[in-house]
Each structure stands twice: as structure tokens, then as C-alpha cells.
Design goal:
By secondary structure, this protein is of the alpha+beta class. The protein contains ten helices and 15 strands. The strands form five sheets. It has a five-stranded mixed sheet, sandwiched between helices. A four-stranded mixed sheet has the order 8-15-14-13, with helices on both faces. A two-stranded antiparallel ribbon has the order 2-3. A hairpin with a 3-residue loop joins strand 14 and strand 15. The chain is globular. The structure holds oxa(dethia)-CoA. Oxa(dethia)-CoA binds next to helix 2, helix 6 and helix 7.
Length: 334
């Protein structure tokens, strides 16, 4: 802007962060509830469908790692965004089942994608809220102007941390990956985001083990107080939704699609009811892949984009909740 004295005053421009492409990947053939029975688990299709809505899940073959799944999801997201890997200067990778203790799965993924530009790559550990955390973190990098194009990934091989003798948990989870390309843009994308944690609830959902002196100390298997998790999830998902809607000056009527963490159909329904959002505005894919933790929200998003349900310009409310306890929500214009 030219002032009267001829001095040029710089006008700060707002950098938005917008999703420009989505991708997902589910390994192998679907494994049905009846398939689990044939594998010796004392359960039934009726129990699983009635209590969780899950009909199938995907299980990665031995030797396939989280970053292998992430790679496929990222390739699809990059293709959808019309971007080459080397145009990505930031990878934020949400997982609780990383390839190794270190290096990070993000760094491994960067190499597998063939990115050689020296951009940043790191993992985020927020269990099933991982994607909401990752998107929130990446948005802040982009809005600050430090980075222009991010891959935000959620990828898990949860089958590796399940106790297949515990029917109360092993039927609920699956493996998979989802990713988005998030880019600096003049047009609004992410409108508001919020992330939270309360570590005093760490024992209601955990894998309380560690590797020390060459041994696993504690348990390497997932354990959960399902009923407490259920109640907590519905409460915080509703609160986080209201928080981001208020921050953006919108209300539930402005939401075209609610995409909550795909853990259990009953949690999704109860959250929608509490928010007074009609069930036909809720994206549901938990029936296809079970609970894939950090991968669940980007998986549900991509499946709905590719079937044409979600369209450009739609207002989306993404939500995560999980171990930690952690939770978060991201409101965005797609
Ligand atoms: O990312 C967040 C991850 N966690 C979640 O989303 C989990 C939230 N919680 C839930 O979804 C539910 O609490 C569950 C689906 C895990 C369990 O449902 P519930 O209605 O709370 O069942 P319950 O644990 O109280 O178990 C009821 C019965 C028990 O039998 P008895 O004691 O009543 O005879 C269990 O032994 O169901 C039995 N049961 C099963 N039966 C068949 C537990 N697991 C199974 C199974 N198949 N797989």
C-alpha cells in the first residue's frame, strides 16, 4: 500500500493451510468377523457388529511396516494433489506403531518417497488423536511461513500390539494408513483446531511396556477399560467440536460432514446425537477397517472423498480421541 509520503508499507498477508489431496491404503484382503472365529477367537459376527459396527479389518503381512502402508497412502495423496515428492518440505507422521524406536517413521518415509530436499520430518505420538494432532501441528508450521507443503500421515500396524487371546480388544483394531497434502494457500482451509491431553487417564488405554537392556519390561500388548474409554470419548469429542465451531464463529448446522475417529459406530452415533448433527452427515468407515488408531480419520476422509461424498468447498469437522488420554478437533473448508 502506498502512503501519502511515498513510503511503501507492507501489508501482512494471511497464509492459510489447505488440504489439496488425500490418499489411503489398507493392506491385503479384508478379514471378516467370521474369519476371526476360524482363527480360534471366541467371538461372533453378531456380537462384534452389534457392539462396534465393525464387519471387516485389514491385517498387514509379517514384515510389512507402518511406513510401508504410509508410503502407499502418501503416493495416492500426492497424486491427488498433483505434487511430486520433492515438493514436500515437511512430513508429520502420526503413529503408535512406528517401524523402530528410532529413526522416526517420518524420516524412513521421507527416504522411501525419494525426497532429497532436506525438509523436516518427525513423528507425533498421540495414539488415536494422532491425525488431529498432526494436522494441528502442520497447520502452525505452514501459517508461520516456515514451510509450504506438508504430508500429514496417520499409519498403524496395530495388529502387532494386540493380544490375540483377549477377545475384548483384538476384534476391535486393524492396520491401515491415510494421508493428506496440506499446502500454504490464499484461500481458507483449516478454520480452527484444538488439541488436548489429560495424562491422569493414561491407564484406561495403554500398551504399558518398554524395551530396556534388551528385554520388554511390562506388557507389549494393548489393554483397555472399554466402558470408561467409551464415556470419555463421547464427552470430549462433543466438547472439542463446540470449541472449534465457536472459534470459527460457526455452529453445528454449518457442518457438511462430521468425521470422528472411527473406533466404534456407537461412539460415532452418540457424539452426533449430543451435537445434534444428523447421522447422515457422519462419515462412517469403521465397518470396513475397524479401529486403525491414527490412520482412522484420514482413511475415512479419503474413502469419502473418493466415493464422491465429500466435495470441494464442504465444511468438515475432523475429530480424534485416544490413549493418553488425548483428544482434538479440526474444522476446515475442504
Ligand atoms: O480409540 C479408542 C479405542 N477404544 C474404543 O473405542 C473402545 C470403547 N469401548 C467400546 O467400544 C466397548 O466398551 C466395547 C466394544 C470394547 C465393549 O462393549 P461393552 O458393551 O462395554 O461390553 P463389555 O466389555 O461389558 O462385555 C460384555 C460381554 C462380556 O461378557 P459377560 O461378562 O457379560 O458374560 C464379555 O466377556 O461381552 C463379552 N465379550 C465378547 N463376546 C464376544 C467381550 N468381547 C467379546 C467378543 N466377542 N469379542
Amino acid at each position: 500500500m502506498m502512503s501519502t509520503s511515498g513510503v511503501v508499507k507492507s501489508v501482512p498477508t494471511v497464509i492459510h493451510a489447505r488440504i489439496t489431496g488425500t490418499g489411503s491404503y489398507l493392506p491385503g484382503a479384508p478379514v471378516s468377523n467370521d474369519d476371526l472365529r476360524t482363527r480360534g477367537i471366541d467371538t461372533s459376527d453378531e456380537w462384534i457388529v452389534e457392539r462396534t459396527g465393525i464387519r471387516t479389518r485389514h491385517l498387514a503381512d509379517e514384515g510389512v511396516t507402518s511406513s510401508d502402508l504410509a508410503l502407499e497412502a502418501c503416493r495416492r495423496a500426492l497424486e491427488a494433489a498433483g505434487r511430486l515428492p520433492d515438493e514436500i518440505d515437511l512430513i508429520v507422521y502420526a503413529t503408535s506403531t512406528p517401524d523402530f524406536i528410532f529413526p522416526s517413521s517420518a524420516a524412513i518415509l521421507q527416504h522411501k518417497l525419494g525426497i532429497k530436499n532436506g525438509g523436516a520430518a518427525f513423528d507425533v505420538q498421540a495414539v488415536c488423536s494422532g491425525f488431529a494432532y498432526g494436522l494441528t501441528v502442520a497447520e502452525k508450521f505452514i501459517r508461520s511461513g516456515s514451510h509450504r507443503r506438508a504430508l500429514v500421515v496417520g499409519a498403524e500396524v496395530f495388529s502387532r500390539i494386540l493380544d490375540w487371546n483377549d477377545r475384548g480388544t483384538c476384534v476391535l483394531f486393524g492396520d491401515g494408513a491415510g494421508a493428506v497434502v496440506l499446502e500454504a494457500s490464499d484461500e481458507p482451509g483449516i478454520l480452527a483446531s484444538t488439541i488436548h491431553a489429560d495424562g491422569s487417564y493414561s491407564d484406561i488405554l495403554s500398551v504399558p511396556g518398554q524395551v530396556s537392556h534388551g528385554k520388554v519390561i511390562g506388557s507389549p500388548f494393548l489393554q483397555m477399560d472399554g466402558k470408561t474409554v467409551f464415556k470419555f470419548a463421547v464427552k470430549v469429542l462433543s466438547e472439542a467440536a463446540i470449541e472449534v465451531l465457536d472459534a470459527a464463529g460457526l455452529n453445528t448446522g454449518d457442518v457438511d460432514w462430521l468425521i470422528p475417529h472411527q473406533a466404534n459406530i456407537r461412539i460415532l452415533q452418540a457424539t452426533a446425537k449430543k451435537l445434534e448433527i444428523s447421522e447422515d452427515k457422519v462419515i462412517v468407515s469403521v465397518d470396513r477397517h475397524g479401529n486403525t488408531s491414527a490412520a482412522s480419520v484420514p482413511l475415512a476422509l479419503d474413502l469419502a472423498v473418493r466415493t464422491g461424498k465429500i466435495k470441494r468447498g464442504d465444511t468438515l469437522l475432523l475429530e480424534g480421541v485416544g490413549g493418553g488420554f488425548t483428544w482434538g478437533a479440526v474444522l476446515l473448508k475442504f
